[in-house]
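Lesson 9: reading folded outputs for more than one chain in a single document. The general rule is that every protein is listed as its sequence immediately followed by its structure tokens, and records are never interleaved. Here is the first one.
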Amino acid sequence: MASVVEFIKESYDEMTQKVTWPTWSELQNSAVIVLVASLIIALLILVMDQLAGGGLKLFYGSVA
């Protein structure tokens, strides 16, 4: 039990004294970058899905 308490104390000390937290501005900039990257990746997946779906419709339409 003492080791758990010691771990919690050391974790708290590290989080308050040794970790460098981003500023609010840096956090907002990072959030915008993640949002834009997510939208771009989602659009790329949508385009690939539409192309694959169109290709399969074309393929199965010519087979039938």
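And here is the second record, again sequence then tokens.
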Amino acid sequence: MIEKEKMLEAAIAHVPFDGWSDATLAAAAQDCDLTEAEARAMFPRGALDLALAYHRKGDEDMVARLTTADLDNMRFRDKIAAGVRYRLEVADKELVRKGMAFFALPQNAGDGAAALWQTCGLIWETLGDSSTDLNWYTKRATLSAVYSSVVLFWLGDDSEGHAATWAFLDRRIDDVMKIEKIKGQARETALYKAFMSGPGKILDTIKAPGGPNPNYPGRWEPEDTDNKAGGKND
């Protein structure tokens, strides 16, 4: 594990010049006094595994920051925003820019999408999401859309302290909350109840893998955002 960490650290110095590539892998191996074969034993898919290792390291740093931050007095939507912000603050813009180009390649797109989903899932889970049905998927899909747009904005943001990015993030989450409020109101209608007792009933059978993080109970619900610091478990 230590060797892999050294390889990743060495690779980071080469990515701005060679991108996430086999050239970067070879250069990092040389820096660590390893053969390319030894490097590929740690990263079997070469540059792809190297790029994913960098992404996972950012996720780990984000989770560590979320779990130690004082979020008790924050609305739950602000905790979600904090998760997105923390994730970007532990990332390097140039490395992310190179990563976006790399994961845009058709052969890497699936792994890139999975990495994005994992990041958004970790934010929800670290903050205590306890949903196990269709909500598990919709929450992550919604946050993935928000996160993607914020990353693109962040990459082009040169405002002091990325103030423009954080304002953009708040606006995007506000937009999502409006949609969630409408969804909440729709659930009370006779049409929605009729649908869910008939053809929509199958949606309630969808179960999410894993389970919630008991250390950070909460849920992202419109009624909780103005008056409560946290939220109720699902």
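What the second record shows: Residues 75-224 form one domain.
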